[in-house]
Amino acid sequence: MLPVICFNQGRPALPDVSDTYLDSLLSNFIANGTFDGTQYLLDLEQCIPFQKNLTITSTKDQVSPGIWYIGFFNGLGPERTQSRMINRGHTYTVSATINVEGCASSTIFGPSCNKTIDVISCSQSSNFKQPRTLLDLNLFNRNGLDLKDAGEHLDVSSAVERKIQQQSSLYPTIMGSAAVERKIVAINSNVPLRAEHLVSCTNSLSSCIHNDEELKFYSLDIVGSASKFIISASELMLNQTSISNSSAGFDGIRLMCYVRYSSLPRGSLHDQSADISRTPLLVNSPKIGQWYVALQIMNQEKADKVTQETFSKATLCFSLEWQLHQCQNGKIGQNCTWKSHVLQRVLKSSNVPVEFYYVPEDHRYGSLEDTNFQLDHLLSNSSVDNVTWTYFFLDVPHGAAGSNLHVQLVSEKNAFYEIYSRYGGAASIDNWDFYVNSTSNINGSMILASCDLSKGRINFYILSVREGIWSFGVRRVNDVSEQESYMSISLEGCAKDCSSKGKCHYSVDESGLAFFSYCSCDRNHGGFDCSNELVSPQGHIWHSIFLVASNGAAILPAFWSLRRKAFAEWILFTSSGISSGLYHACDVGSWCALSFHALQFMDFWLSFMAVVSTFVYMAAIDDDSKRAIHTAVAIVTALLAETGATRSENVLIVIAIGTLGLVAGWFLEYSAANRSAWTPSFNFFMIYRWQSIRGWCWNLIKALLKKFRWPFLLFGFIGLALAGTSWVLENNNSYWYWHSLWHISIYTASFFFLCSSRPKINELHPQEPQYELTRQNSPSRE
Fold first, then answer.
1. In the chain, which end has fewer C-beta atoms inside a 10 angstrom radius, N or C?
2. Are residues 669 and 623 in contact, defined by beta-carbon separation less than 8 angstroms?
3. Do 316 and 220 belong to one domain?
4. 216 and 347 in one domain?
5. Whole-model pTM above 0.70?
6. Contact 465, 491 (CB under 8 A)
């Protein structure tokens, strides 16, 4: 598995686990070799393969202001977690240091904070005030204004002011946004209102750029939904000479304009660009928030060297103009054709502070007690080519980015609906983040859709939705009259309520500022919503039977130990088989006799002891030496079972300990049997007595050949090799099969090893006491 570190803004950093993304991530890692931030991360919102030492440096061009989430993942890809024992991968300890360096003001930037960003001042061409928040967007809805006493000459500005006062007193806050209290006001539908108004912005003084390497930066806040904005330049002066009156040699000069949302643009990194000295720059449906503009003069390649030299010393002055087009009266779109509605949040339960449902502010289309609202009367009346658009705006509060946005649309008739969603601005057919219709969706892995055209139903989740303003554009293709359609939008914890196959848990991130939720699935299901069936119920039963019943192979070495009156080994093998069966019964979710940790410790500790005892038994040493070795091994194996029972290295460690015990036992056995050969002179002069060494080695080989039954010993090594192979081949999908084979092979190998050891002669024919007749003189009869 490939460990990665992921970055994301506004929502938890969850990786895309699709095959396409994983292949692209791995290929980029192989091609680049390293990820050092400044060379690779043009966009910080991505995942990076983790290395031992990783440094990422990003500038203001790459990081936009806001809340950033960092996530570390031990691996990517599908995983089966039916058994906790299989989780024996690598363990990583992560230490991170995050340094954020910035200037004291948002209008200053640069490594030395010596560059400025000019703020463009704006003035409106109508009497309407610029809406400052999302909730103020409904002030331009004619149904929301108090026009009861309005006459022919209506002062709309005063009506808006009265509406603002009403809202400020009627809307308490829930987590920093509007609550659900409301007040109905009288309306007069005969008052004509303008459909669109224009906000003109300009820099108060003429700006100048001195050479083609200089970038001039501007910023402007868009605080309400806008249909478009236009950037243009006028009064261009080159070296204090009007461009229009200049010679043809300066026709190659261009004033390039780069715009980018929420971050500083560059020539190589921007959202849109244009030569505003000739044509204005048009941005349709801009996102709500801060936009940055960068201007740069460029020279089209000329052959005239005089022109090049003159241009390098040129100074271009201009006046920048910015026009922001916004719709009024609850309208939206390029021509203010479609209806738009602002949805307010209603808290579902006080026990979960991040679960809401959204309803329109007008109670005629949905009550505060119902989680859904009627859609038909909210749809736009006009249509273009038999297509209508209706927009809904809502706000995801801070701290709720770990939740999922659930959208449902149900129609009683087969009206073909499409839903386009977009973060920060109005969605369109050409500009959207997520798209779902009644038959399909185009979104990647961050959306979960379940639609049914036959039932007229659209149902999808936006997973780990980003904090901020979202828009949903409902596009109806065919016009079906007198139909009933309902829509519901809610902010929920776990998608699909964990598919009724698990439990939803809520937690708080390490900063304590954001909630997130996750599903704890049962043994048979997996996935973030527990919708993936890992194993069928019948398969789960068979897996449980294999894992538990395979421990019955412990009967073989236990029976042989009892037959040879090796009671210590008999107790070990019997206890090991029973504890392993109880542990796996608990691990697969059947029945737990004790706590999982206690059963796991007993299983691994007794298994380690049984393996080592098999090797010690083969040494055939006296009971005192055997007790000493068993005591030392019990301490070491207990530490192994407690500190990291499922580590693969433990198998090698235990086999090494058993081999060491076997060698130590042989040394004790043969040193006691051949003690007479180890004379003091032999210790000093054996190195020069080749004849004695050769004789000693030959006697050792003959003793080993007589000590073991070699066919059984060969079968024991085959069983041990099969056990090691089974351990290596275990994975999340085939764990039940290979681990069951591990039980059978390791106990069978122990049985053959026990059978391979020949008993001592005095064990088969114990020496009987010898009786001797003695003569005894009888007393005389005298």
1. C
2. no
3. yes
4. no
5. no
6. yes
Beta strands in 397-467 (DSSP E): 404-411, 417-423, 434-437, 441-442, 447-449, 457-462
Q: What is the pLDDT of residue 771?
A: 53
Whether 521 is covered by a domain: the verdict is: yes
Question: What's the residue count for the chain?
Answer: 782
Report how far residue 675's alpha carbon sits from residue 142's, in angstroms, rounded to the nearest whole number.
Answer: 111
Q: What is the pLDDT of residues 587-602, one digit of tens each?
A: 887 788 888 888 888 9
Q: Collect all residues with Cβ–Cβ distance below 8 Å to 604 and sequence separation of at least 6.
A: 640, 641, 645, 646, 650
User: Using one digit for the tens of pLDDT, what is the confidence trace for 130-159?
Assistant: 433 333 333 333 333 333 333 333 333 343
User: Could you give the CA distance from residue 481 to residue 474 in angstroms, rounded to a whole number?
Assistant: 16
Asked if 364 and 376 count as a contact pair (C-beta separation under 8 A), the reply is no
DSSP conformation class of 65? S
Same domain, 736 and 587: yes
Please state whether 512 falls in left (phi above 0), alpha (psi between -120 and 50) or beta: left
Dist CA 3 CA 21 (whole Å): 15
Q: pLDDT tens, 102-140?
A: 888 878 888 788 888 888 766 655 434 343 333 333 333
The candidate with the shortest Cα–Cα distance to 761, out of 693, 720, 707, is: 707
- Assess if residue 178 is contained within a domain: no
Query: Which of 101, 120, 140 is the last residue before a domain boundary?
Result: 101
| 611 and 511 housed in the same domain | no
CATH number, domain with residue 465: 2.60.120.380
Please check whether residues 308 and 363 belong to one and the same domain. Answer: no
What whole-number distance in Å separates Cα of residue 396 and Cα of residue 56?
30
For the chain, the first-to-last Cα distance in angstroms comes to 105
Residue 157, in any domain of the structure: no
Task: Provide the β-strand partners of residue 404.
Answer: 492
67 and 206 fall within a common domain: no
Our count of domains for the chain comes to 5
Rounded CA-CA distance 357/62 in Å is 34
- Name beta bridge partners: 359: 344
- 3-class secondary structure per residue, 653-703: HHHHHHHHHHHHHHHHHHHHHCHHHCCHHHHHHHHHCHHHHHHHHHHHHHH
Pair 479, 344 in one domain: yes
Domain end (from 284, 309, 331) = 331
Task: Quote the domain boundaries for residue 603.
Answer: 537-673+708-763
Residues 572 and 443 reside in one and the same domain: no
Residue 272 and residue 302 in contact, taking contact as beta carbons nearer than 8 Å: no
Nearest C-alpha neighbor of 715 from the set 748, 738, 739 = 748
**Cα distances (angstroms) measured from residue 352 to each of 220, 349, 506, 710:** 37, 6, 9, 69
Instruction: Reduce the DSSP state of residue 61 to 3 states and report it.
Output: coil
Residue type, 598: A
**Non-local CB neighbours of 718 within 8 Å, separated by 6+ positions:** 749
Residue 728, C-beta contacts closer than 8 angstroms, at least 6 positions apart: 648
Q: Is residue 116 one of the residues assigned to a domain?
A: no
Say what the pLDDT of residue 158 is: 40
The two counts, helices (H) then strands (E), for the chain are 14, 35
